């Protein structure tokens, strides 16, 4: 059962309002109605925060729309990133995916098709070298020599992404890269 929220706390559907022909009927099965709801994105205050963060790191075109080109800062043309943090299963991935797809200049890819924003899911027990090697693999790069140092492989990733026109690297589950292996801590 859905309860009414006060107007300031009400979430809005990001999709067009449901029409009688697009919404499931009451005669639909509960599974069909649930699938219809899950296919919609419930807009919330985090969307605005994410959009603000993207405006701080990406350039805008003449009309004010975000592009996929990063802002360059400082004497060495550094770029910056955004961390989206939160408890498990609260919709961080959906937030990012929905907001990146909202911008026509940004095309998310998994590395198999053209795009300028690469989605990569970090494995549960990664190394920096392994993540870089896997990014090269999913973008179609050939074999990476095992004796290369992590920094050398990351330089190859930067070059590979530039060659493919990928300017946004989205590392989903990146927190795995920050966790200490159990064997180093006796845990």
TrEMBL record:
Gene3D superfamilies: P-loop containing nucleotide triphosphate hydrolases
Annotated protein name in UniProt: TniB protein
Native source species: Pontivivens marinum
Domain of life: Bacteria
Biased composition (Low complexity): 14-29
Region (Disordered): 1-29
Xref: Pfam families: TniB
InterPro entries for the chain: P-loop_NTPase, TniB
Lineage: Bacteria, Pseudomonadati, Pseudomonadota, Alphaproteobacteria, Rhodobacterales
